[in-house]
What does this fold into?
Amino acid sequence: MTYVTGFLTPVKIEDRERYIASARKAWPLFQKYGALSQVETWGDNVPDGKLTSFPLAVKLEPGEAVVFSWLTWPDRASADACWEKMESDPDFEGLDMPFDGKRMMWGGFEAVFES
It folds into this structure.
């Protein structure tokens, strides 16, 4: 079944187009390593919470938006292989990353239901 790598990160609103350009440049690299799809979303209706919320999760600061993204893979082995190979791939080194990586959350998820 499909494997998903998900990301949640804050991005400065002024860097929206820069972020999108970076995502477009990253796609062929992920595709080269077996990714089936890449989805990048920009927070449009992301309410604050008192106990939990997307803004709280990334410690959102004024002038930032929450970005929620994911890559789909045929399986976990493909995703793991990508992450191992990208450390030594010079094409990944040159990517612009217009977000605060310290506040980025990510994880891998095994699909348990798909329709």
User: Anything to note?
Assistant: The chain has one domain: 3-110.
